[in-house]
Design a protein that fits this description.
The chain has one domain: Cytidine Deaminase, domain 2 (3-Layer(aba) Sandwich), CATH 3.40.140. It is 31% helix and 20% strand. It has 148 residues and is of the alpha+beta class. Keywords: Hydrolase. One of its GO terms (molecular function) is cytidine deaminase activity.
Length: 148
């Protein structure tokens, strides 16, 4: 449990140090993903003139982890409204929850809390009534790539 807390604190530290470097003024956001082999992947959202083609902040880091063929254990998304605003943790949207489930229901994600504390829950805790509960695990397993 202590190791989990160390990982979560390290992810948050990396996020709040990265945002002012990448976004010195105005809005800023970053996602940090931790993998089973102790790597950290960082990504930002793609800024486009057509917001209908934007991607979530987490997507780049997920793609990097997938490219490296490593299992994701944690995901954290942190934003701020401008350079004078406090940092906020954003729970993953439903689409990102679906993407993260590729690595299993035990992936831990940072979630938004009323007291703005750093808190992680598993995907299973975040969405206990997920649609995949209607199917046996072995039916779903063939959709996942076996990670070595």
């Amino acid at each position: 449990m202590e190791q989990q807390r160390i990982i979560e604190q390290e992810m948050y530290r990396r996020a709040i140090e990265f945002i002012p470097k990448r976004y010195p003024k105005g809005w800023g956001g970053v996602a940090i993903i931790h993998s089973e082999d102790e790597q950290y992947f960082t990504s930002v959202s793609i800024e486009t003139a057509n917001s209908s083609v934007d991607l979530c902040i987490e997507v780049g880091a997920m793609c990097e982890a997938h490219k490296c063929n490593v299992r994701v254990t944690h995901c954290l998304c942190v934003v701020r409204d401008d350079e004078n605003s406090p940092f906020k943790v954003l729970s993953p949207c439903g689409v990102c929850q679906e993407r993260l489930r590729f690595w299993g229901v035990d992936v831990k994600v940072g979630v938004t809390t009323p007291d703005h504390s750093l808190h992680f829950v598993t995907l299973n805790e975040l969405q206990p009534y997920h649609w995949t509960n209607a199917y046996p695990e072995e039916e779903l397993e063939h959709y996942r790539t076996v990670l070595t």
